[in-house]
Amino acid sequence: MASLLGRSVSVATLALLATAWPAASAWAQDEPKFDGKGRQVTEKEAPPAKRKIIVPEVKTYAPPEYPQEAKEQRIEGEVILKLTIDANGLVEKAVVHQGAGHGFDEAALAAAPNLIFEPAHFEGGDPFKATILFKYEFNLDEIEPPPDETPEKPTTGTYKGQLFDAGTGAPLAGIRLVITLPDGTQREVYTDVEGNFAFGALPVGEVEVAIDAEGYDPLRATEKVTAGEELAATYRITPEAEAGIIDVTVEGERPPREVTRRTLEQRELARMPGTNGDALRALQSLPGVARPPAIAGVLLVRGSAPQDTLTFVDGINVPLIYHFGGLSSVLPTEVLEKIDFYPGNFSARYGRAQGGIVDVAIRSPKKEYSGLAQVDLIDARVLFEGPIPWTDEEWTFSLSGRRSYLDAWLGPVLEAAGTEVAQAPRYYDYQGAIERSWDTGKFRASVYGSDDRLEIVVGEPGPGEPALAGNVGLITLFQRAQLGYEHDITPNDRVEIQLAFAHDALSFGLSNLFFNLDSYQFLGRAEYTRKLGALATLNMGIDMQAGEASVSARLPALPRPGQPDNGPFSTRQLNAVDVTSGVYRPAAYVEAEITPLSRWRLVPGIRLDYSKDTGDLNASPRFNTRFDIMEGFPRTTLKGGVGVFQQPPQFAQSVPPIGNPDVNGNYAIHYSVGVEQEITRQLEVSLEGFYKQLDNQVVARASTSGAFSDNVNTGLGYVGGAELLFKYKPDDHFFGWVAYTLSRSVRQNAPEEDQYLVSFDQPHILTVLGSYRFDDGWEVGARFRFVSGNLTDPIVCDAANDECDPTRINALYNAVGGYTPIQFGGLNSERLPPFHALDLRVDKKWQFELWALSAYLDIRNAYNNQNVEGISYNFSFTGRTPVTGIPILPSLGLRGEF
Predict the structure, then answer these.
(1) Which is nearest to 384 in space by CA: 438, 431, 337?
(2) Is 146 helix (H, G, I), strand (E, B) or coil?
(3) Are residues 384 and 333 part of one domain?
(4) Is residue 659 part of a domain?
């Protein structure tokens, strides 16, 4: 009969995650410190002031079921789980830290929620939430031989023992033991709360034992494993002569410096239905994010234009977030650690934007060799990472790349359909990094970039545009070479530095018209954080852009004031320009984090930005606050903020002769107020109202001199609305949310002109999604979206509208034999029908001994709704036809990883 051993708790470096640790209520009391990853840490204290931490201990053990297949094959193993234990001693979350396959992982996860612990606490203090490593061992003590078979002679032995402090005699918990087997491979375990450790079945022979514990002298030993026998050992390690106490890492989410920060976890990023497993496309399902028109690869945040929202990679700005058509993002999910999304009222750390901020963190390479390869109908990708050979284990590397192959199969399909295609959309991206980490910081050198290309042949000019024939081409690319350094100088002082060399390029050509932008810049930022005391932290930083940009173009000018626009676009007078200019935009900021009460957080800050091209020196004061009405569970938080946000004009808007040197930056004031409420441990709801006042907006006017255009700061506008989010935080099986946004985005080109809705205004945005993971490796998910239709400038009125006049003249015949349309109604005066679609996703993973295979099917627009994305007109503008978007689009993918 099989029995289970190993009711052991293992605490890696005494990692404790405390979310209910009472904050100090007086200046004289030290406030908890934070490490470089936002984790709260205790300070080293000299005895006898140190406080003993009592780690969680099992009160009620819950044995797992032994997998039947593993039992039949006489396979043993051990699974290490990472358990989050609340202040009541209940298991709040369990994930596999070190798996064993063969059904052991699933059995351990099924049993873990039934464990009950004595919660973590300081000696004589209140309990707090903690994260520990807990080990389940699956050992077959007695197996009856199958009928008519003789038991095989044992070929393995077992090895267990206990570890003590040689000075005090106390058992040592959370200490790592590494053994080297006769074949050179290594295994590791951690001691539990009683100092116990146990390895599973081991091959016979001598094993080398290594124990390296912080604050203790290292220990080396050689033991012999005998077939069919159990080796029991007791070790005592000696404290170093000058050793202090062992640091205890108390993990907790650092309170945000913004009113609203939405962070997606890795599982949400990779399993979002309708995104093809692309993490950054998951942003389009969050509150405040509008649906882009058709397949446009842009991010529309709280009624702002696409260029008003900036994207950062480890603090360095990149010019775009999605490849052509929004098919995928410029960074694959596999290299991401997390994505922080700030829809408004963001920290003074960020500037040069009046919309939102997306800050992407690249994860550290793994310390063991691993890799993956994935293919689907759109692209293929590879990744390989691990320790750098011939260096210590803290030096690691990662290499990854991705290339689409739409050009391999979509091009021939389009040609067969009669479309003259020179090159179908093609993109690739790449990422490479080396990293060195240590207890108080890390250094990283990385390179990454993206390249997109598209070319279509226009054989015959279209009606009304006789000069437009030839090739249509578009190229976008960026490259970054980046250095990053993070270091906790002392428990109260931290520095973070990011430096990068950047190359960005945009090239567009249509027949004899073209526009090319090329820039080389040095980008950098540095932030110093100083803990001033128990109640205050000061963040100071600089942010730099410096380099050179060039523009060359040949484009038609806008019609002069009073000049009739009765001719094709392609026959207007062409203007050419070729200009190079320096770019110099430094900035500095200071921001305080003040906690006068444990439940109240104040974040005042100010940012100074200078733009050499416009000569502007702007100050942007900001203030955010959060107040917990109810501390602990269920937490209730009020939040609010107000701030000034200034965005410099685009390069082509301010540099003559294509731009206006007298133009200034765009100006916006953000207001927001909201509430967050925990309902259960997994379910929370948030409601936030926002308003953005827009002034000094750059508007293109027809030039009186015949130049391309005059850019002036006469634009006004506002954006207002509310966001509601019901979110179920990921557990072992399910994650999901319901998000609803109500908004209105209005502009004026000048105070004396009429207001109009911007083309990306969407009053109602509803997203409902969820994904459920079964115990056998299957996961299914769905996403439903209902969004107000996009706005358009109609030429021919909708016959279904009672106000439509079928006798209206819609166009004027011009001298070159074409028709010039006459706009019907005001700017953006017609709203297209609402968009709605259901996306589905199914994942399956097979775990083998040395590798894993995954397959997924992602279906966009599962019920094939014919969503209207625009209007097409005949050559004489006497009739109109709706243009529908993407039909049902399945994507099947395979991934292998080790």
Answers:
(1) 431
(2) coil
(3) no
(4) yes
3-state DSSP call for residue 881? Answer: strand
Torsion of CA 798, 799, 801, 803, to 10 degrees: 100
CA distance 268 to 282: 8
pLDDT at 154: 62
List of residues 6+ apart from 425 with CB closer than 8 A = 324, 325, 327, 404, 406, 407, 410, 452, 453, 454
The most confident of the ranges 255-269, 425-439, 875-889 is 425-439
Residue 538, in any domain of the structure: yes
Q: How far apart are the first and last CA of the chain?
A: 34
Please state, in angstroms and rounded to a whole number, the distance separating the CA atoms of residues 687 and 872.
40
Kind of pairing between the strands at 230-237 and 77-85 = unpaired
Q: Are residues 513 and 554 in the same domain?
A: yes
Alpha-carbon gap, residue 215 to 203, rounded angstroms: 32
With CA atoms as reference, report the closest residue to 328 among 383, 386, 269, 368: 269
- Distance in angstroms (rounded) separating the CA atoms of residues 551 and 556: 16
Is 799 a residue whose pLDDT tops 90?
no
**Residue 660, pLDDT score:** 82
Overall average pLDDT of the 658-663 stretch: 82
Determine the Cα–Cα distance for residues 427 and 413; give it in Å rounded to an integer. 18
Q: Quick one: pLDDT at residue 766? A: 96
Number of domains in the chain: 3
Mean residue pLDDT across the chain: 81
Is residue 24 within 8 Å of 30, Cβ to Cβ?
yes
| β-strand pairing of 249-251 with 16-17 | parallel
pLDDT at 248 over 70: no
Do both 495 and 567 map to the same domain?
Answer: yes
The predicted pLDDT at position 431 comes to 95
Instruction: Indicate if 73 and 86 belong to the same structural domain.
Output: yes
Instruction: Report, in angstroms and rounded to the nearest whole number, the Rg of the chain calculated over CA atoms.
Output: 31
C-alpha span between 180 and 202 (Å, rounded): 11
CATH of residue 163: 3.30.2420.10
Question: Phi and psi (nearest 5°) for 380?
Answer: -130, 145
Closest CA to 433 of 383, 477, 478: 383
What's 849's DSSP letter? S
Name the domain boundary from 359, 388, 414: 359
Chosen domain end from 317, 336, 359: 359
Contacts 24+ apart (CB under 8 A), 124-128: 125/51, 126/20, 126/22, 126/87, 127/20, 127/87, 127/88, 127/89, 128/16, 128/18, 128/19, 128/20, 128/21, 128/87, 128/250
Instruction: Please check whether residue 502 lies inside any domain of the structure.
Output: yes
CA distance 104 to 67: 6
Report for 140-144, 211-215, 227-231, 690-694: range of highest mean pLDDT: 690-694
How many Cα atoms are found within 13 Å in the side-chain-facing hemisphere of 330?
24
Span 193-216, pLDDT tens digits: 678 888 877 888 888 888 988 767
Query: Average pLDDT in the 855-873 region?
Result: 90
Q: How confident is the model at residue 26 (pLDDT cuts 50, 70, 90)?
A: very low
Q: Looking at the structure, do residues 321 and 387 belong to the same domain, yes or no?
A: no
pTM confidence score? 0.69
pLDDT band at 36 (very low <50, low <70, confident <90, very high): very low
CA 214 to chain centre: 34
Residue 761 has pLDDT above 80, yes or no: yes
Cα gap 424→412, rounded to integer Å: 9
The more confident residue out of 870 and 13 is 870
Query: Do residues 345 and 465 share a domain?
Result: no
Of the candidates 122, 115, 119, the residue with the CA atom closest to the CA atom of residue 130 = 119
Contact by Cβ (8 Å): 264, 275: no
